[in-house]
Amino acid sequence: MTDPQNRPTVGVAVVGYSFMGKAHSNAWRNVGAFYPDVPRAEQRVLVGRDPQRVREAADRYGWQDAATDWRAVLERDDVQLVDICTPGHLHAEIAEAALAAGKHVLLEKPLANTVAEAESLVVAAEAASARGVLSMVGFNYRRVPALALAREIIAAGRIGEVREVRTAYLQDWLVDAEAPMAWRLRKEEAGSGALGDLGSHVVDQLQFLLDDRIAWAGGHLRTFVTSRPGESGPEQVTVDDAAWATLGTERGAVASLEVSRMAHGRKNWLSLEVYGSGGSLRFELESLNELVVDTGAGGTRVLVTETDHPYLSAWWPPGHVLGWDHTFVNQAADLLACIGESRAPSPSFAEGASVQRVLAAIEESAAQSGTCVDVAPAAPPVVPHVPASTAPPAVTVLEQPR
Ligand SMILES: NC(=O)c1ccc[n+]([C@@H]2O[C@H](COP(=O)([O-])OP(=O)(O)OC[C@H]3O[C@@H](n4cnc5c(N)ncnc54)[C@H](O)[C@@H]3O)[C@@H](O)[C@H]2O)c1
Fold it and tell me: Ligand 1 centre and the CA of 108: distance in Å?
């Protein structure tokens, strides 16, 4: 299908309409205005559980329809892309069904709650990719222009060989011991706590920035508040409140990781510092337009808003800063571009599974009082991989392969 300007269109369904559902809706609503060269996203249907609330959200966020049954949505011929913004325990079930139905999938991070689920998703994604159906994980911080620029600087060798990385992702929304139970505090729904929620972003970002893989991990987990008010009385917290790890990469760099949802005063503080043999980079998410580049003269604060910086040609004149929400628009544009060109998007489910294996290694190490463990290797592919570039053109995909 094409729009009046002859752009191919991609009908989108988003499952989940709360925090991420709202952020992704904003992205699907605006991506066409800022990225005119990618297929046009059509906001077909928003999916939730409560009919009235999902209808209200659909109206507010610009969706044509609202629905309460995601399975029925997979039957719709006018939906080509399913964007999953639900708690982790639903990721694998919805994503695998969507891929089997021939829908491209964008799946929020972390990929899954367990390594077994993650590996199963990789198999499903590889089988789908052989049919021209694409999948991507929503690690949106890859789409922060300053971090995309940091990756380019590291790849160009401008800070030399990376030796040490210091990472922290700290929040404080659980610091109050009376904060109520939520799905994020139940292992069966969230998989893990700060480790999976925040640590997954950090691990993906580490592997992305360095273009390297984490090979071993030594970690510790703590649950400071073990019981919280539930709907019918006190309920056990079954995930970590904070996690720490030392990580080693295949190329020999060493990284520290610190994540917490109980760090008083920290709201959404992701800090990344990369130290190489010839310089360093420093970044904080709460100042996301800035990157400090130090190659020996005391450090330069680069305002990452120039039109030749990653993603910036789509946005405003230099100095007119971007925010957190723009990362989701950039992410939507990248995925639509891949669909338009029948190209495999990144981060793939395989990359998401590699993050999952690192999280599992940190948990395994923590259970052994911090003894370092090797990160498990990826399972061998079950389906021979067909690069997306040799797959059928996207227009065929858009017209519902079954
Ligand atoms: N990229 C990021 O920065 C970021 C930030 C926060 C959350 N996340 C991820 O996004 C996902 C969702 O988190 P959130 O913060 O939006 O959670 P949330 O609790 O705000 O929203 C979850 C949504 O899922 C819906 N839902 C639950 N079960 C459903 C079902 N059976 N059918 C249809 N809808 C259902 C709920 O109605 C709700 O709208 C998680 O995987 C989380 O890790 C990513």
Answer: 8
State the distance between the two ends of the chain, measured CA to CA, in whole angstroms: 17
One domain, residues 232 and 170: yes
Whether residue 389 sits in one domain with residue 298: no
**Mutational pocket test of ligand 1: of 25, 108, 359, the residue with most ligand atoms within 8 Å of the beta carbon:** 108
**DSSP bridge pairs for 218:** 246
Instruction: Using most ligand atoms within 8 A of CB, pick from 85, 94, 188, 201 the residue to mutate for ligand 1.
Output: 85
Residue 401: the pLDDT is 27
Phi-psi region of 6 (alpha: psi -120 to 50; beta: other; left: phi over 0): left
Whether residue 34 contacts residue 314, with contact meaning beta carbons closer than 8 Å, is answered with yes
Domain of residue 97: give its range.
Answer: 9-141+380-398
Ligand 1: centre distance to CA 84 (Å): 8
pLDDT in the model for residue 380:
78
Residues 212 and 237 in one domain: yes
Give the position, in ligand 1's atom list, of the atom nearest the Cα of 57. Answer: 39
If you take atom 7 of ligand 1, which residue's CA is the nearest one? Answer: 20
CA of 234 to the centre of ligand 1 (A): 24
Inter-residue contact 80 to 106 (CB < 8 Å): no
Residue 296 has a pLDDT of 86
Task: Determine, yes or no, domain membership for 333.
Answer: no
Together in a domain, 245 and 310? yes
Residue 195 lies in a domain: yes
Under 8 Å between Cβ of 331 and 100: no
| Average pLDDT, 10 consecutive residues per value, the chain (402 residues) | 83 98 98 97 98 98 98 98 98 98 98 98 98 98 98 98 98 97 98 98 98 98 98 97 98 98 98 98 98 91 98 98 98 98 98 98 98 94 48 31 26
Q: What is the pLDDT at residue 390?
A: 35
In angstroms, what is the span from residue 368 Cα to ligand 1's centroid? 32
